[in-house]
What does this fold into?
Amino acid sequence: METGFKRDLRNYPLYFLLWTVLGLFYFSQGLTQRFVSHDPTPWWHYLVAWLSGVYIWALLTPAVLSLGRRLPVERRKWLLPITLHFLLSAGFSAFELSLESLLYSRLHLFPAFLKDFRGAFARLLVIGFHGGVLNYWIVLGAQWAILYYHRYQERSQELLQFEIRASELQSQLMSARLNALKMQLQPHFLFNTLNAITVLVRQQKGKDAEQMLGHLSDLLRGVLDDIDAQEVSLRRELEYLRLYLAIEQVRFQDRLRVEISADLSTQDVSVPQFILQPIVENAIRHGIGRSSSAGRILISASKIDRALQLRVQDDGPGLSPSDSFEDRGIGLANTRARLQQLYGQAARLEIENCNGGGAVVTMNLPFRESHQEIMRTYALHNADRG
It folds into this structure.
């Protein structure tokens, strides 16, 4: 890992450049004063004087930065480091001025004012000591600002990583909840179907039992093909539903009449997998199952504004005033929970009585095309082009 001293050496050209810019700025100020006061001192004296001063500070900068790292000012421990830095700034300022005085006396700069080292040091100490202290604190301030910025960036990255991990965990938790809800629904349907097959066997209706087993096998095969998918296209969902209805048709024979109406524009829209089966099962159980006569179930899918609306309507006895989602079975309660997990406030599930009798369940879902259907259409399009 790169140490602070090595990093300072690597960045030294930058320090040198910044001090050079500062020296030229002060040089321009000296020229202005020379012009206004009609000072006969040659201009290059000002140039050499200011550049020599800033270059001495450039040489001292790595040492100041090293001290800044060794004596950090922390929230709980600030008094001692601040005191030490004030003492060090005074020492650095005096040391830098002594080097400047030596150069001035050797190069004979400003001979009218600075005749020898002692005189030069005394004069520079009066006019330049506070500036040297300020230079020390400017270097420290720049270092602390950069360190604070780096720490802020590190904290931002850590926070971002934490948010990403939290989002991933939230996604995994949501997926686990959805899978749990699906696993509650599918065994519930499976047990009901197996019980129905058992009844048929006991009634010695072997042909009907075999037919129901065949439909169940086809349905389970289709569901297992999409076992990891939370959403499928409405077209695929209706395939599940028709296989399920074929099973129920064996049980109820002519008593069950089903009509399915789905707009073409809705066929490729994403819906939760196995979302219609528990609602239709509920309609059969509480509608036709409670009546000795034939019953009809109407299933429709249409686009309403920017939403997909799914309706399952039966002509049974309808809802009693005391009925709730829980009273109508696990299917409706779990369906509402799945919609809440997948879409939040963007989805809605309602059940109510119809004017002509019976009950209707209405689902409103976000209208968006299934990714599976997009990829399938894309593949078919490319195959046609080839």
